[in-house]
Amino acid sequence: MRSVALACIVLLGVVFAMNVRVVASEDGVHWISFEEAVQRSKAEPRKILIDVYTDWCGWCKKMDKATYEDPSVAAYINATYWPVKLDAERKDTVVFNDKAFVYVKERKAHALALSLLSEKMSYPTTVFLNEDFSMIQAVPGYLDAKTMSPILAFFGEPSTTDWETFRKNFTGLPTKNGN
Question: Start and end of every Spermatogenesis-associated protein 20-like TRX domain (predicted)?
């Protein structure tokens, strides 16, 4: 009887833990793979935001918690961009535009990350691509939610305003329905 009760408690604990993770991820950015972002963007054109990180990067982890879990930042990213997390040290192959990107052992980095960051490896770096997958901008370094918000809006919204004017007049992220 004790083993049945113990099994039930363990099972409930596992189910509860899985539910907690699902709820937490629904509140943050809905990250997808680079390959999935490319496919989705072909069907529903959006700009792509790429968080280039490594597992050992402390500032990357801080940005995940402080910036990407901020409700207004996460909601805006989910509604405006196809958000991608790209491990700069991933070991698999990514095929993009008929070119295979692989891990480059000598550089200890993935060729896609090297290409996106113009071989200037800095973590975290936030990369913005337009709807046809051309580079808009790579923004290196940790960005808190307050710093990230005007950058997201500047690249996410159509504008003819220069960055300094936009930043001075920025009052907050637009509210959008989406994703």
Answer: 25-137
